[in-house]
Structure formats: C-alpha cells, structure tokens
Amino acid sequence: MAKNHPSDRRAEFANDTKTIKNLTAALYEAICFDADRPQDWDRISNLVIPGGRFGFSMGNPFVFLTLDDFKEFATEHMKAAEEKFIEEEISQVVLEFGCIAHVSSSYSGVYDDGKLIRRGINSIQLMYEDDRWWLVSMIWDDESPENPLPSEYLP
C-alpha cells in the first residue's frame, strides 16, 4: 500500500489527488513559479508515489530520474528563468481502466518575457489506491521541427 508523503501540509493537498484532473492541475501549478511563489516541491512530493520516476528525451537519449533527482534537474534547468516560469496544460487525453490511468497532457511553457519557449507532451501514468490517485511515472518530450505536436493533442 502506498503511504502519504510526510508533510505538514497534507490537508492543504487533499483535493489534489481526488481526481485525475485535480492531480494534473496540481502538478502544473506546483512546478510553476514567479517572484512571489517558488516551485512547491512539498505539493509535488504529495502527488508522487514513493519510488515514482520521471523521464525525458528532448531530442536526446532518455534520462530517468527519482523525485529528488527531478527536483535537482528542474531547479537547475529553471535558473534560465530569472523571474518566472509558467507551464500550462493545453490539452488532455485520459485512458482509464479500473485503478490505472494514462494521461497524455500537452503543455506549453513560457519564461520571464511571456514568449513561448516550448511545447510538448507529458505522458503520465497514474494508479488509484488508498482513496486517491498517485503519480507513478511521467515521461515527456518537447516539440521540435522534426517532432511537431500531433493535431489530436492540440486544443
């Protein structure tokens, strides 16, 4: 059985894991930051089952990370954004069966000046246990001229 991530903010996060839509919305909200709001790693940790994994390609061989490694990667990677980074879901396709779900979540991201810096797809695997949804793994790839977003994953 999965165990909740220890956090003094568990009650604050309770709604995040009640539905698939809530979980993906919480994930996007927590990874974003601006001058008044840092990335919320407690909130992200609450979404992820212990042992959960993150992977990405972005045109290179895949790299797989633990939650701690992902936090380190994201923190370092976001240093290019001095004041803010906003990543938003632009489309979602959910396949759900029993206690498992797969979410294809198309995203767009912007840095300080508000100009689009990237789009891509997060492939998110979820499980339902202990009266909540858990993020088990997430892999993503960014759009490129050679790899445009398919129309079925656009709004």
End-to-end separation in angstroms reads 37 Å
Helical element count? Answer: 4
Backbone shape: globular
Mean pLDDT: 89
Indicate the proportion of strand residues: 35-45%
Known CATH architecture:
Roll
CATH class: Alpha Beta
Strand order of the largest sheet: 2-1-6-5-4-3
DSSP summary, beta strand count: 6
Largest sheet descriptor: 6 strands, mixed
> What proportion of the residues is helical, as a percent range?
10-25%
SSE order: HHHEEHEEEE
Secondary-structure-based class equals alpha+beta
Q: Count up the domains.
A: 1
Q: What is the fold named in CATH at topology level?
A: Nuclear Transport Factor 2, Chain: A
Global Rg = 15 Å
Are there runs of 5+ residues with pLDDT below 50, and where? none
Verbal overview:
By secondary structure, the chain is of the alpha+beta class. It has one domain (10-153): Nuclear Transport Factor 2, Chain: A (Roll). Helices cover 22% and strands 39% of the residues. It has 4 helices and 6 strands. It has helices at 10-13, 20-31, 41-47, 67-77; strands at residues 48-56, 63-65, 86-97, 100-110, 116-129, 132-142. A 6-stranded mixed β-sheet has the order 2-1-6-5-4-3. A hairpin with a 2-residue loop joins strand 3 and strand 4. The longest helix is centred in the N-terminal third of the chain and has 12 residues, at 20-31. It is globular and about 40 Å long.
Short note summarizing the structure:
This protein has 4 helices and 6 strands, in the order αααββαββββ. The chain is of the alpha+beta class and 155 residues long. The longest helix has 12 residues.
